[in-house]
Specification:
isomerase, single chain, 2-enoyl-CoA Hydratase, Chain A, domain 1, 3 domains, alpha/beta, Rossmann fold, Enoyl-CoA_hydra/iso, 20 strands, 31 helices, N-(1-d-carboxylethyl)-l-norvaline Dehydrogenase, domain 2
């Protein structure tokens, strides 16, 4: 053994070849943390000092090659002073460059995922062999930063600026065929042949058949583009990338600028330029928020894995109530491998649900994500029925009938008599109390909420709602089923609206106050979309459905009358009474036309302004900042109350629920991280300036204590 560490070993093989192997002890994956980087530096030094070594292959002992840097260390690094962060990053670059400068050929065998720093390690080698099925990429922009260990330097010098910009600015993972076509890797082989292929390539390079120094040299030189070629490549790319990324995500555009700025320099100076760009981005609130979201997502996965250990396997599911929602649930279950019964009392509803599932499956076939045979298999996994004939075999039932407590109670009581004593019943209610619905059941311990968001196939969140009598087994099995469906479950406790709708309706309350203050709803939409929401509140209400919002608001007002009950009529009331139900009826705040792709497209409808006159007050002068405050304060304060009331266990769950459930702007990190970014004391002061608007704007005693003590939701 030439070198033995906890993450890296170097072992002598035949023909003067050494194998540098990443295999972190007691870890499921390889990643670049401080220990691994330190050992890599030591291992390279041992190789350089060993005259018997004539070539090196780099392998992994894990299923993935290297998943990237240890993101758990990011926020600590980002908090360093700029000079210290720059020095730390350049030190790591020195390790990668030392590997690249070894006086012998180097070959990397990419057996699985090689992302971020994992791919940057591969780029520092002379040759790259990739297994079929492996995937590689530079996803750093998704964390609000750029590659910082040579990705923006080596990749464009290997594959050209255009290809490098596409890979880096998109942050996508790429398959082996794409990597070979572009030139990121030199060969693609079957997984079982990977090691031998790497050894063979290394032997041939040692023998002089392949010139490793010639392969290495372009990565050390300036980018091979003259000034005119650079201008054409970079200026057009900057415009396109800026348009795709939008104004709130600076990293993709900064990556293009970094490649351009470094184009006229050799490797070492180019790496300095890259590190300076990384430091600049690391100090942004966007990077802190996106890295925070990554940590939050990991926390959700950790909790879900804990529940899965207690879960029963759902081998057959059922959904009660076909139609669009039921069809979407059936599709999601079937396409992820769990057969499901689709039950309704009306044949036309069954056909509607099957049609929805078939449409979604057809779209996946068109996009190449499913073969026709896989589509047929998924459709066959959805078994339509008008009776309870096969329900004795069902492990979990999702009730998705009309949002009416009496109807839901009747249906749940009926199906309880048709299933096994251990079958889990879950209601897809969006607002109705699980404790209330449980009163109709003989086995309330087997009952919980399972709230999907529309459209089911696109929205990642599922709220799993725990009632007072819900057992741990019911929650565990429902969480595991949601994960099996490809969803992100968050376990919340019961209250009207649960987490997401409880927080969303105070936001709509802010919208109603702005309408009453004479602010045009189209301006409000524009301001909130500029703030970062995917759609403004008026457009969102049209998509949700004015009738759905009208009903949900009544439930919320009954549940929290001191904050959410309004005595007067609102814009939602006016539109509901006029039959303007949003997209579903073709008219709401906006009118809707079908575009060439068959999707509804919103257009302005002047007639709605006349209709809304009774609820529009005398116009007031409000700045865009005022509009944002009046909209965001109630949402953020209600999120604080959900955390304080124990509806969610932690701040991470609260923020991820909003990002995944209603599209809270990811670059702001969630409602609680948004409060942290403003400063808790500054947020409380802002709320106090608007407290005359009503109880929704009143900070809690707990939040005032946090402000006084200088505490944050995220340390």
């Amino acid at each position: 053994m030439i070198y033995q560490g906890k993450a890296i070993t170097v072992q002598a093989l035949e023909d003067g070849i050494a194998e540098l192997r990443f295999d972190r002890v007691e870890e499921a994956v390889n990643k670049f943390d401080r220990l691994t980087l330190s050992e890599l530096g030591s291992a390279i030094a041992e190789i350089r000092g060993n005259a018997a070594i004539r070539g090196v292959i780099v392998t992994s002992g894990k299923e993935a090659f290297i998943v990237g840097a240890d993101i758990g260390e990011f926020l600590g690094l980002f908090a360093l002073p700029e000079a210290a962060l720059l020095a730390a990053n350049l030190e790591t670059n020195g390790i990668f460059s030392a590997f690249e400068d070894l006086p012998l050929p180097t070959v990397v065998a990419i057996n699985g995922l090689a992302l971020g720093g994992g791919l940057e390690m591969c780029l520092a080698a002379d040759f790259r062999v990739m297994a079929e099925g492996a995937r590689i990429g530079l996803p750093e922009v998704k964390l609000g930063i750029n590659p910082g260990w040579g990705g923006t330097v080596r990749l464009p010098r290997l594959v050209g600026a255009d290809n490098a910009i596409e890979w880096i600015a998109s942050g996508k993972e790429n398959d082996a065929a794409t990597a070979l076509k572009v030139g990121v890797v030199d060969a693609v082989v079957a997984p079982e042949r990977l090691r031998e292929a790497a050894l063979d390539l290394c032997r041939r390079a040692i023998a002089g058949e392949f010139d490793h120094l010639a392969r290495r040299q372009p990565k050390l030189d300036k980018l091979k583009l003259n000034q005119i070629e650079q201008m054409l490549a970079f200026e057009s790319a900057k415009g396109y990338v800026a348009g795709q990324a939008g104004p709130h995500y600076p990293a993709p555009l900064e990556a293009v600028k970094t490649i351009q700025k470094a184009a006229g320099h050799g490797r070492d100076k180019a790496l300095e330029i890259e590190s300076q760009a990384l430091v600049k981005l690391a100090k942004t609130e966007v990077a802190r928020s996106l890295v925070g979201l990554f940590h939050n997502d990991q926390e959700l996965k950790r909790k879900a894995r804990g529940w899965e250990k207690q879960a029963r396997d759902v081998k057959l599911a059922a959904v009660l109530g076909a139609g669009i929602m039921g069809g979407g649930i059936a599709y999601q279950s079937a396409v992820k491998g769990t057969p499901i019964l689709l039950k309704d009392i009306r044949e036309e509803a069954i056909q509607l649900g099957l049609g929805e599932a078939a449409k979604l499956l057809g779209q996946r076939v068109e996009k190449g994500r499913l073969t026709p045979a896989q589509m047929a298999e998924a459709l066959n996994a959805i078994r339509p029925t008008l009776s309870y004939g096969d329900f004795a075999q069902v492990d979990l039932v999702v009730e998705a009938v009309v949002e009416n407590p009496k109807v839901k109670q009747a249906v749940l009581a009926e199906v309880e008599g048709q299933v096994r004593a251990d079958t889990i019943l879950a209601s897809n209610t969006s607002t109705i109390s699980i404790n209330l619905l449980a009163k109709a059941l003989q086995r309330p311990e087997n009952f919980c909420g399972m709230h999907f968001f529309n459209p089911v196939h696109m929205m990642p969140l599922v709220e799993v709602i725990r009632g007072e009598q819900t057992s741990a087994a019911a929650i565990a099995t429902t969480v595991a089923y949601a994960r099996k469906m490809g969803k992100t479950p968050i376990v919340v406790n019961d209250c009207p609206g649960f987490l997401v709708n409880r927080v969303l309706f105070p936001y709509f309350g802010g919208f109603a106050r702005l309408i009453a203050a004479g602010i045009d709803f189209q301006r409000i939409d524009q301001v909130m979309e500029k703030f970062g929401w995917p759609m403004g509140p008026a457009y969102l209400l049209d998509v949700v459905g004015i009738d759905t919002a009208h009903h949900a608001r009544e439930v919320m007002a009954a549940g929290f009358p001191e904050r959410m009950k309004d005595d007067g009529r609102s814009a939602i009331d006016v539109l509901y009474e006029a039959g303007r139900l949003g997209q579903k009826s073709g008219r709401g705040f906006y009118a809707y036309q079908t575009d060439k792709g068959g999707k509804p497209k919103k257009v302005a409808d002047p007639s709605v302004h006349e209709l809304l006159k009774p609820v529009i007050g005398a116009p007031r002068e409000l700045s865009d900042e005022d509009i944002v405050a009046i909209m965001m304060l109630p949402l953020c304060l209600e999120t604080v109350r959900c955390l304080e009331d124990g509806i969610v266990e932690c701040a991470a769950e609260a923020d991820m629920g909003l990002v995944y459930g209603i599209g809270f702007p990811p670059f702001r990190g969630g409602a609680l991280r948004y409060i942290d970014a403003l400063g808790v004391a500054a947020f409380v002061e802002l709320a106090d300036r608007h407290v005359a608007l009503g109880p929704l704007y009143q900070p809690t005693a707990g939040l005032r204590a946090m402000a006084s003590d200088g505490r944050k939701f995220f340390a």
